Protein: Amino acid permease
Organism: Paraburkholderia acidisoli
Amino acid sequence: MNEPYSSTGLVGDDAAVASPRGLLGLWQIVFLVISAAAPLTGMLGAVPPAISLGNGAGIPGAFVIAGVVLLVFSVGFASMSRHIVRAGAFYAYITAGFGRPIGMAGALVALLSYTCIQIALYGLFGFFCTVVLGPLLHSAMPWYLYSFVCIAIVQFTGIRGIDLNSRLLGVLMCLELGILLLLSVAIVMHRGGPDGLTLEPFAPRHVFSGHMGIAVMFALASFIGFEATAIYGKECRDPKVTVPRATYVSVSLILVFFAFVTWAIVCAYGVGNVVEVATKQPGDFWFIQSTKYLGGGVTTAMSLLLLSSIFASLLSFHNTIVRYIHALSVEGILPAALDRLHAKYRSPYLASYLQTLSVAVPVAGFVAAGSDPFNIVFSWTSALGTIGIVMLQAVTSFSVAAYFRATRKDTRVWHSLLAPVLGGFGLLAIGIVLIGNLDALSGSDSPIVRAFPWVVLAVALAGVALAFVLKRTRPDIYARFGQ
């Protein structure tokens, strides 16, 4: 039986972060969230392998399926956000539904997963800097120097407050969405490629062909970051209204945009040719069509915007992890000093420094080991992070149904039961596909990669054990957790 849960009141310095002038509106949260999803990075990085290893020309349908699953998940997630406003949204919701031990497991898995995603993106940023900036600057600077410069810039920017971050991310997001939209519109205006403009990519015979599960797996990975809407609840205006709206708007925009852009690129190559090109030329898959329809100058701009897209995602995830660290420090799980706010910027600056350290040290470890920035740093850590986040989403969805069943605070059947349960099973199914196809997701069949699901499970069990230790030794902290 779950312990009593209370969602009222703010604890300690968390109240200070709750409303540093109520800065964030709907669209600022949407900018933060879509920036984390990194549309340009997702399209350039995930679409070619999703086509070649997944369902081929049916890739737009895979994005629709992934988006619909997440929209169903969002119904319960948004309903929960009207009753519980916490920076550590995942673990707060899990605690509310399943109790503190499972909630503590969720907290540790969230920290592990988001940190792994950020490490992966630093590796990806360094790799693409050598590819894009190296030739332009006539420089042979190694990837990790670019990565460490980026770490410093993210720290410098992140500590200067969420308002500045949201405005900067809004600009970068508009640029990366704009260039993908420009290419897609150009393809449409030229009536596509050899097959013209066709709706065949959405036909069931293509969507459900090949390895559809692998395609949905890559598609879902491209959405990661949208769940951050609830994390900013205490920093936005009227969170009980803004957070649900931001969640629906973010997922809907990403779904429609990804489906349209992937449909356009499939039409550009033709249903019968797209798999061959994605398999043989994955790195140039998008740039070939960009050069054809928009010219070399815009293609160069696209490659530069790829770097800004990765940076925007890094900054967004930095903000997400900082808020998790701050929330855990307020509750006494992490040192109390981490809840201090910067006198000028009102940001959790010590939590920000800890977050930066938590990614700088592993990146330095990869450098010392001589790891490849793309095939190891990015591919491996992104696979580990994706498993953790998808499983967290599934557990969160089930916890929403458990919470409303116990409290009766929302008696709408669709919002409080059917959607959370359906979303949970959908995400659980995708998580099983992820685990069964780790070699495709990570690009490696290493025993280390195969152990990733066990790593996530071990961290979750460590969280459960920590909760029981706190219950026995520090009942005050245990009682405050997740509240």
In short: DSSP finds 21 helices and no strands in the chain. The chain has one domain: 14-480. Residues 100-137 form the longest helix (38 residues).
